[in-house]
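General statements about sequence and structure are easier to judge against a single worked case. Part of our work consisted of pairing the sequence of a single chain with a tokenised description of its backbone. The amino acid sequence and the backbone structure tokens for this protein are reproduced below.

***
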Amino acid sequence: MMDAQGEPDEQPQEMNYKELLTQLDSPFEDESFPPDQRSMITSESVFQLNQEEVGVLQELEYARLNDIYGSKKVKLFDKISPEVIEQGCLCNSYFLSAISALAEVPDRIKKAFLCEELNDLG
């Protein structure tokens, strides 16, 4: 197919997570959500939370599911519903609102994940 300028349309490629995992040599890390305190305590949260809540966040340690559960069988999805979403003290209400909207149709949430199996690369 051609686009409006007569150039060939690039079709999105189907991503195979197993192929993606073979390309990674270390666990995946999202650059915009680093696995440390910067993702939990933001300039926004410091102004919206009381000192005790900030103190609780400062005590938290980032961990991957494999670090917490080891080789135990972990179920990614149990019940997908807007009613099971709870706001904690991370000041991420915009994110939770978006997830809640997606959860109205559970398959939308499932399609956001490349796999449901726990793996060493996250």
Remarks:
- Residues 37 and 97 are 23 Å apart (CA to CA).
- Residues 30-72 form one domain.
- The chain has a mean pLDDT of 78.
